[in-house]
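User: For a benchmark we're assembling, each entry needs the component sequences followed by a predicted structure for the full assembly. Here are entry 17's components. Please fill in the structure.
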Amino acid sequence: MLKHGILGLLKYHQMTGYEIMTAFRDSLCFFWNAQTSQIYRELQVLETKGWVEKTPVPQQSKPDKNIYSITPEGRRELLYWLSEGELSLPSRNHILMKVFFFGERSREENIRYFEGLKEYCEIFLQSLDAAQKHISEYRAFLDAPEQAVYWEMTVDYGRRNLQGYIDWAQSCIDRLEEMK
Amino acid sequence: MLKHGILGLLKYHQMTGYEIMTAFRDSLCFFWNAQTSQIYRELQVLETKGWVEKTPVPQQSKPDKNIYSITPEGRRELLYWLSEGELSLPSRNHILMKVFFFGERSREENIRYFEGLKEYCEIFLQSLDAAQKHISEYRAFLDAPEQAVYWEMTVDYGRRNLQGYIDWAQSCIDRLEEMK
DNA sequence: TGGGTCATGTAACCTGTTACATGATTAG
DNA sequence: CTAATCATGTAACAGGTTACATGACCCA
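Assistant: Structure for entry 17:
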């Protein structure tokens, strides 16, 4: 999956591993986050598969760069991945796992947990504005700027999802308050 | 994480690995799914940590069972896990990863994708009724039946989340239709 | 007689996380 | 002077997936 994310980014533009990491951190972080350690490992795999090509670029007074670009086989693979495959919703939710077993604790503790969750989501919501901003900036570099609608759709989902958590947490609090 | 899910289930009642699997499949599947292969592996780990105990039960005309029950240390660990730790929202969404790169494809293909997503979520929503039913059945076996509110909260989140996907997918379709 | 359920697991693999390691430049 | 940024990675581990393997019972 990360493999295809990297291919997708390289389709826009050739990049170093570091630049790929910053793209994830700045624009994709709310639905995927990737450490450099994993990115460099995947780049090696992608290279052996022939989906990307590495060009070493010596720099004066800085460590050398390796610039990666997508190959025709990589483009084919990207399109294949986009059209293929099962729909799969995220199926591992740590928060729900805890809440499922909240019967072990006091109502008060659980209410505090939901309050904390609301705050956390509200802060996260604000950080989405930053992702939105990055996306608007990158838009200018696209050949076909209408492509950016899809980026905006992902941010829109992020917002709805966070608002969904906030509303749900509030409804849980209300329910627990009523039980008192 | 799965470790603590298993501990939580064993806190309700002693079980075999197989029964743990069925509990995940029937009641927790919408936010966590676990294969038997992983469950048996984790049970071994939990045993070496002293959090669960295995009691072999010979059966006539059937393979033997191993019934697992939670130890006092396991209970302590369960409570620790419930109170400790960071909030972490699921941060890996395969659907958004694809949508982010939908600029590579035609609007028509993408509209079809979102239509498929809506259908998929609608079917999934119905399957949540089954989870709800299982929860209602299990409720009777609880010492403290009010614990089941927390189970219901997770199902409630599941429903809201799926409805969120449906609404979002529809809004994406609308946006793409407008662009024509 | 064939498929589903109960019941147990192993092995290989893939993916992601954490910690570590290096080293230069640049901005405050 | 110090922290951040650019730039590269390795190693060990943790967690999850897929495939395989066995075997009896029960229902249609």
